[in-house]
Please model this.
Amino acid sequence: MEIEHQRYHQIPENDTNMPSFGSALESQSQSQSDQELQTPLIDVPSNHNDASDDDVDKWASMKNVINIYADQSGSCQNITKGLSIMFAIGAITGLVMPKNPSLTPTYRTISSIIGYIYFVSWSVSYYPQLITNYQKKSIDGLSTDASILAVLNYTCYALYNGFFFWDETIRQEYKDRHGPDATVTVQSNDVAFSIHALILTFFLLFQIFYYGGFQSQPISSITKGIVFAVLALSGGYIACIQIYGWLWIDFLYLMATIKLILTILTYLPQIILNAQRKSTSGWNVWVRVCMRNDFQILGSISHCHSLLPS
Model:
């Protein structure tokens, strides 16, 4: 019995096939630790990948739109897509925005839609050239003289719209001259457009400076003379206001006249440059596609038609 009892309690020293109680506990603890490490500390939503895919799709769609307006080939397909996007945005904006109460119900809606399509077209027209310059890292093909005159042009336009829209003194001078029932025709979208255009033309000037455009294409003496003449005329008129009591409203009419003249002069340097280079490469085609005046003409026609006697 004693021998059998000893055999029962004897454990072979070199038998590695029989795990000890301590090693079993250690193995169990290790497996629990491995399981804890494999368990994430924060539960990740199951739709995380779906959200990332949506972000990628949105970015891809945005890049596709940018590529449409950065295209310089004049592709009929891209022009159709780009115009469709602008028309849709302008039409929706024209439907939801406040309309001119002086027009008949039918024509106020038509005028609003056409007006905002025109507004969107002009606003979009400045971005393609900025995109083209950034992609090429160059302003070759863009006239520096035209860009300088554009800044001067929209400075006059922003002053005219801003003062007529916000300044009560100017609005009162307008009523004193045209009657108490006269209404200032400058609208909020006129102010927004002119300020927006002025900011973007300054960005364009910055690109010209950054990419060395003023060294490769210095400002002409004619453009310098135009800038000096406008500044001198404006400064002289302001001095007459202070000395002789001239009205500020007439200064704004002067700004409007200068803006009208500069609108014509601004495009001449670009036309001359294109003719000299025998190419329009570097000058984005969307600048002209977006700046067509068809919708302004249609808006004016619809407005005049509503004023005809019934």
Notes: The radius of gyration is 35 Å. Residues 141-279 form one domain.
